[in-house]
Amino acid sequence: MFFPMHWLLALSFPSAILARPPSTGPMGRSANPPPGPYCPPQAATPKIQQAIFNDFVQKLFVEKNAVDAVTNYVADDLIQHNPSLADGAPAFLAGLVGSPSYNTSTLAIYHQLFMAGVGNVHTRVTSPTTTELAVSDYYRMDGTCIVEHWDVIQALPVNSSNPHPLF
């Protein structure tokens, strides 16, 4: 029997590892992180990393406070895999703050998880000025600090070849 890759991944993750935003869901936070800033990196348990990641997601995606999120959670020498942005926290912040779609859009988090030092956020981005997007961001942590970022961005198709939604 064939299972889509995301099903296999979801089935292989213990439920205790799936991340939830800090104020929602029955699991809540798995640990309280120490006070920030979190960079340069310090040693951290997986539970502390997950709590720090959840706080970062809350700041960046829910509160849309890019300055606080990047200043407190992202390494100055961030490795950036988005070809439109240079490496480093300053370029990441400039890309967010300078983006009309980030500033005027609605970000709805559909999936969020954290495992083995890597966090993922799958969002639906709705904006009055751009096409609706499905975005999946991946962040790698070194101890308490986010040190690497990847993203996959896809415009919602007008016509789909199958009935499966992106969310």
User: Alpha-carbon distance between the termini?
Assistant: 23 Å
Q: What does the main sheet amount to?
A: 5 strands, mixed
SS-derived structural category: alpha+beta
- Beta percentage is 25-35%
* Net shape: globular
Give the low-pLDDT segments.
1-29
The number of E-state strands comes to: 5
Q: How many alpha or pi helices?
A: 5
> Share of helix among residues?
25-40%
Rg (C-alpha, Å): 16 Å
Q: What's the pLDDT, averaged over the residues? A: 83
Written as H for each helix and E for each strand, in order along the chain, the element string is: HHHEHHEEEE
Could you give the order of strands across the largest sheet? 1-5-4-3-2
Q: Topology of this structure?
A:
Elements: H1 5-12, H2 46-62, H3 66-73, E1 74-80, H4 89-97, H5 100-104, E2 106-115, E3 118-126, E4 133-142, E5 145-155
Helix pairs in contact: 2-3, 3-4
Explain the overall architecture.
Helices cover 28% and strands 28% of the residues. By secondary structure, the protein is α+β, with helices and mostly antiparallel strands. A 5-stranded mixed beta sheet has the order 1-5-4-3-2. The two termini are 23 Å apart.
